[in-house]
Amino acid sequence: xxxxxxxxxxxxxxxxxxxxxxxxxxxxxxxGPQGEQGPAGPQGPVxxxxxxxxxxxxxxxxxxxxxDRTAAITNAFELVAGSPAEFEADEDDVAPGPPSVxxxxxxxxFGPAPSDSNPxxxxxxxxxxxxxxxxxxxxxxxxxxxxxxxLASGGPKDGQRFWYIVTDTSDRDNAAALGLNFSxxxxxxxxxxxxxxxxxxxxxxxxxxxxxxxxxxxxAVDFSSVRSIESSSTDTxxxxxxxxxxxxxxxxxxxxxxxxxxxxxxxxRISNARDHIYNAPMISxxxxxxxLSPYCDGISEDEEEAAxxxxxxxxxxxxxxxxxxxxxxxxxxxxxxSFGRPVLYLSTDASVDLPAALEGAVFAPALANIPVGRDDSxxxxxxxxxxxxxxxTNDPDGMVHPQRQGFNSxxxxxxxxxxxxxxxxxxxxxxxxxxxLNLGEWTQEAIDNGYRARxxxxxxxLGMVERGFLTGPGGSPYGSNGIIINCPIVQRLL
Length: 494
Fold this sequence. Notes:
Blueprint: H1 15-21, H2 60-73, E1 125-126, E2 132-134, E3 141-151, E4 161-164, E5 168-169, H3 172-178, E6 181-182, E7 204-208, E8 214-216, E9 221-222, E10 228-231, E11 246-249, E12 253-254, E13 267-270, E14 276-279, E15 282-285, H4 289-292, H5 304-308, E16 315-319, E17 327-332, E18 334-338, E19 341-345, E20 349-350, H6 353-359, E21 362-363, E22 383-388, H7 407-411, E23 420-421, E24 434-442, H8 444-448, H9 458-466, E25 470-471, E26 480-486, E27 489-492
Parallel strand pairs: 3-8, 5-6, 7-13, 18-23, 20-21, 22-24
Antiparallel strand pairs: 1-27, 2-3, 3-4, 3-17, 4-15, 5-14, 7-8, 9-12, 10-11, 13-14, 16-17, 18-19, 19-27, 20-26, 22-23, 24-25, 24-26
């Protein structure tokens, strides 16, 4: 299931202004007497510039560079001022359109996005800054550092190596230093096992050794499980819910509390990192550099089966690095919304096997020990994510429905479920990468009256619930479904 993405427009400066800035190599000196030109100012360093023959816009080299960059990531230059873009019938576009649509001027006359000067204002913002984001292909991806770990469980798998990523931390200073997401709520995820006020049940314990390898006291993941999703029905009419017709197997399964090798959770409290909690999802277990190196340039169709037996299902490519250099991993991103803004995020782990299979995530049952339903109350470690069972699906002739959304549509292979996230950094202060799933079902009344639409904002959803147009699955009360999904935020598109 993939979604085609358009890169969000990077607007340019007014070419007329650029013309004024694109003079000769050296600056002119002060004005001479009676309006005559004064002596030339000091010559700056001469930079190597591309030939002038490729300049096709007014404003010189600087304007052309902006124009080339814009053309590479948007269809803005294909638009006639005031006219909408033409999209392919099978294109599910959720990225914002260029500001020139409906205007009488081209996109080059718009300034930079307000988020360039203040990330809390409208415009694109990369939130997970530890790597790069690529939205030029059929799927959006992020390439981030790959780290090595070692299991010290005392169990059968003791001493085995694993590979992981880091996306979030409760350490505000280190989050800023490493380009990670800061989440104060992670501090409230370290809950004790039932009946034992001291034994952890959702956050592993660990430390980093003299080589920078993360050593954890528990947690193993079996990546050899073959992910499968089969539905006995394709009937999406009315309030029908295809989730109830599924037979699934998650593609990776983590150990639970009570296992001889300890429980797996993406969360690790690192004792010699000021005892902070890090979100460190596992990407591969019991593998070495030779196992991973074949996939440095991606995973071919012929390699798919072997790769999935040792890797997280969202891995596009993985390279452990050579001669002590750090490795990298490229992961597929999901698209969703937060307070009306399209966003990109990772989906790495889930507390229940069903969403783990649907999201291509690790089934991590220990995450279920973290309390849900508390949202932003005292000691809550979660934030809410809103999904839909029976949102609009595509037209039978293959035309993409502009209001498409929900798990019925995703199960039919039409694209991702386009879930709605609560607070994220720069938009709210209550961000947590651990999302408490609130699954909604549109009522027959809402469908009959044409109220069912693509939802993009939390409080609009809650308003539909309050009016009786959204309920829980099967007409049940709306609220938490008791499922946690680990979805670190990566980028805001608007």
